[in-house]
Design a protein that fits this description.
The protein is α+β, with helices and mostly antiparallel strands. The chain contains 3 helices and 5 strands, in the order H-H-H-E-E-E-E-E. The chain folds into 2 domains: about 40 residues, no CATH class; about 120 residues, SH3 type barrels (Roll), CATH 2.30.30. Strands 4-3-2-1-5 form a 5-stranded antiparallel β-sheet. Strand 2 and strand 3 form a beta hairpin.
């Protein structure tokens, strides 16, 4: 009844943006304490925009599994492609090995690029790829190489800013710098 009296204004809603620091042993415990505080007060609604660092172990485990799987595939591909060359070069001598290397270069003109990308992958080097997508769209991607697959002309990269994995074709890569 008091709210209907003319001398009492009606309740209105107000929105505040705040940064709150909570000292705890872990991010999960701090988040739990914050949620307890927010849920025990007369707060109608809230939106936590930053500070939640949960799921990092899951993300790391998934990335490690993907990298391990891709490395196994790359090792298998490298093993299957090196066996026929080794057999052919043993019988042909030095001249045969030069011919087989020239034949490989003719079948895959990106051989030197594959080798460079593979070395970036093995060392975990952060590189910047310049990629040209359809309709001439040019992208500059700071990334790490996750895997290279010369058989399908695919390069899998992890975009360090967007935290996403991209699958690129080798012919989309215009330039790269370490």
């Amino acid at each position: 009844m008091d709210s209907q009296r003319p001398d009492y204004p009606q309740k209105r809603k107000f929105l505040f943006s705040v940064d709150i620091m909570i000292e705890e042993r872990s991010n999960g415990r701090a988040l739990e304490a914050l949620l307890h505080l927010l849920n025990s007060q007369p707060i109608e609604d809230y939106d936590i925009k930053q500070g939640i660092a949960l799921g990092e172990k899951i993300d790391t485990a998934l990335q490690d599994a993907i990298m391990k799987q891709n490395q196994e595939k790359a090792a298998h591909i490298a093993q299957t492609t090196s066996e026929p060359q080794a057999a052919g070069s043993g019988s042909a001598g030095k001249d045969g090995s030069k011919k087989s290397k020239a034949a490989v270069t003719e079948t895959n003109p990106y051989l030197e690029i594959w080798d460079k990308l593979k070395s970036f992958q093995n060392s975990g080097t952060l590189i910047r790829l310049t990629v040209i997508k359809g309709k001439g769209i040019k992208l500059s991607i700071p990334c790490r190489i996750i895997s290279t697959d010369p058989a399908s002309d695919n390069v899998t990269v992890y975009h360090v800013d967007e935290k996403k994995v991209y699958l690129l074709k080798i012919n989309e890569i215009d330039d790269f710098e370490a």
